[in-house]
Amino acid sequence: MTGPVVVGLDGSAASVTAAWWAASEAAERHLPVVLLHSWTTQPLDVPIAQEAHNKKRYGHDVLQRTAAELLHRHGDLALTTELVSDPAAQALLSHGENAAMLVLGSRGHGSVASFLLGSISLHVLGLAQCPAVAVRAGAPAVEAGWEHPAAADRDEVVVGVQELGPDAEPLLEFAFTAAELSGTRVCAVRALPVSALVTHPQAFAAQQADRDREAEERTRLAAVLIPWREKFPDVPVVEHVAMGSAAQVLLAASAHSRLTVIGRRRHPSRRTWKLGPVAHAALHHVPCPVAVVPHD
């Protein structure tokens, strides 16, 4: 993975928490950090006048204050700041063409927002050419790790594997790399839809079929993970296959994860973006950082 870790910073608690997480990831990966602030796209509750001069001064102060905090924590971190006039989403997507990852703040529980409107962050998450990570304000794995080396009860990276072919490779690469760097395990999650309800005497046969299908899918998932176990021999791996909707199974598996990784198909047009129901559920409800990784 090359390129910088680019953080969208607007001065909100969520964006500052995102910067903490980004700095730790960049330090572990030996990557530079870029703190990016769009002075034309600021939170509605910023208590400043609307003149351009004051907006720029606010942005400069936010960047310098956060940079000083990160450098105090990571003294050898290569860090730069950028105060831009381009709209936040446009600036981040432009950086995403050459970045290792983009990092955004998330208010969580009902809205995903980093800058002026939640739709801006969703737009970035849906169109970024590189992995984009949403970090919730007050994320326990992040804030505990800021004070201590790691959050003791956040000991795995969860990755949703709904595609078992080449589409899963970017997700698994991201998840295994993150787990290796943090010294945690990977939990590969796959959901299977429950058979439609049937009446007796067909119910027993349907339940048996579900159990057989679950065992079969667990075997298929284990086969997909073989080359990743070989590439990352020091990373423990567990397979989690469960009946239920993909969103429900992923949310349950992510209750105590330090990072959840999900996939998103690339879109041929930069004007068209879509995040599916699983991505929306994870971004709104998973308590840890959520990485959205594009794939073909």
TrEMBL record:
UniProt-listed SUPFAM superfamilies: Adenine nucleotide alpha hydrolases-like
UspA domain sequence ranges: 1-136, 157-294
InterPro entries: Rossmann-like_a/b/a_fold, Universal_stress_UspA, UspA
Entries under Gene3D superfamilies matching the protein: HUPs
Similarity comment text for this entry: Belongs to the universal stress protein A family.
UniProt protein name: Universal stress protein
Organism for this UniProt entry: Streptomyces flaveus
